[in-house]
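DATA SHEET
Item: assembly model
Revision: 1
Owner: S.N.
Input lines:
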Amino acid sequence: MSPPTGFTELYATHFQRLATQLYAYLGDHAEAQDLAQEAFCRAFDRWHRISAYDDPAGWVRRVAWNLATSRLRRRATALRYLSRQREEHVAGPEPDRVALVEALAKLPARHRLAVVLHHLGQLSTAEIAEQQGVAEGTVRSWLSRGRAALAAHVSDVREESSRA
Amino acid sequence: MPEPMDQTFADFAARTAGTFRAVPVEAVASAVRRRRRTRHGALAALALAAIIAPVTLLNLGGRGETPPVVTPSTPAVTSPSGSPSAAPAPVVETRAVQVPGVAPDFPATVVFTDAEHGWALLVGCPSRAPACDQDDCVQAGHTCTAVLARTGDGGRTWHRVTGVPSLDGKVINLYALDGQTIALHLIKEKFLLTRDGGATFTTHPLSAPPQEAVLADARAHGHEGYGLACPGAVTFEDGASAPECERVQLYKIGSGPVVPQPQLGGNPNRASSLHRGLDGRFWLLTSPEHEGAPRIQLSEDGLRSWRQLPAPAQATAFGLVLSPDGAEVWLTGNTQQLWRLVGGAWQRQADLPAETQPHQVVALGGGILLAGNPSGVWRLQDGVFTQVPGLPGLGILTRLPDGTLFGYDDNGRKWLSPGTGNAADRPWIKIF
């Protein structure tokens, strides 16, 4: 089974970006890696159909966030297999990155989701609403409240980053 | 120059992305091949996971998804098991959103405007077949079929709305004002509005949303007839974040900004929430820009003047909740604190259940609150939160204008509790 046309490029372009968003949301580096990997596995499995979509990357993102949100991690055969395929150890996050993750962790989950998808995923409130199946006004409320609560922490995070 | 928050996230992304390393794409291919060989086993495991999820989530939460605990300085939060004063389980009736001619597996988005009148948008995708797992069915974009339906008997029967143009493949937000009036926001396209129960629809451009949509949104958020927005903003912008501005304005829908204006912050860093009580009072809660207490403003004379109320010393923003008659005023903090305004002073109450947010709290009057969290629905009475038996965790819990309670759980089922009052055994209807 060779990689289908288009998948390799999508995978290379979006994997790290998606895993970074999931890490900001979940606060768990290893879980973020696993869930992003799982989402791309599913995309590969259905690539003949997904490649015809207008936004295959959006499909992968949606799947990954569904997994993260529901926390129904599918520790299935593919994941266990993949976990043995990591060729090298990758350094974990540094303290300055952890500071933002900790600040995000203080937000309610939905507010955190909106903030991460908007600021890291670069999604509009309409796109987040579409992904989450809620009204756009609801997302605006989550985002507004999340940003307001996070604002107090941002200066601390930036100070910590500049020292790092 | 990017704002500090954007820069912070950009720095974070730049420093973090490289710490993730995708396995080689050939390994993905091998993993998928292995998965295909074990498909049946995997699907069985998934089915089991779906069944046990509500239970296991309690243990997986990690960040506050634990049962509420007793705090020494506040009254207790208890669970029904072992509590001698546990309330009887309410009667729960089940009603299905079944629309004649529509396949029963079409997932429905449901909104109610009162105990009897509701609207449902049912969306079915070609991929929603037995072989399709849940995540495929979320996608499918333009290939999905959408059906609009309505009920006038509390969800016992549903009728397809036939006068609506094709909604297939659209991404739609519903703004229901009453049983006759609903605006459909077709994202990135237009608005559709009916005032006659769906017999006819008018089309509105995104730049001029129908006033009914704005009114419905205001009603749903507890500030009937009024709103907060940046100057000149179109309330229902499309495909972009809410406009940002130094100072939002309080406006009357259909009229424009009110005079005098209360002290309002900018959007979004000093967000405000507006609450209109049935006693005629208006409340404004404005988040602090940085650490500190929220600003609480009150108008008791029909918006002719505003005065500021001191916030609880320990409060760091959050939500304000009014009883049906507007007489009881509650304030929620962002670490489960709860206060009630008594004689002009904020009195600390029992802590809210873990993970409860303001949009999951309704005041029933008589000093009684209902609060949803991932574990269930909790009732505050006589200073103690007690779990209401038989109800799931509700992600949203709101009160409709006629007093009906409406919420939905994490599995997408809607919960309706008709009637008024604060009885512990008020009936609930599960709609799916």
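QC remark: Residues 136-163 of chain A form the longest helix (28 residues).
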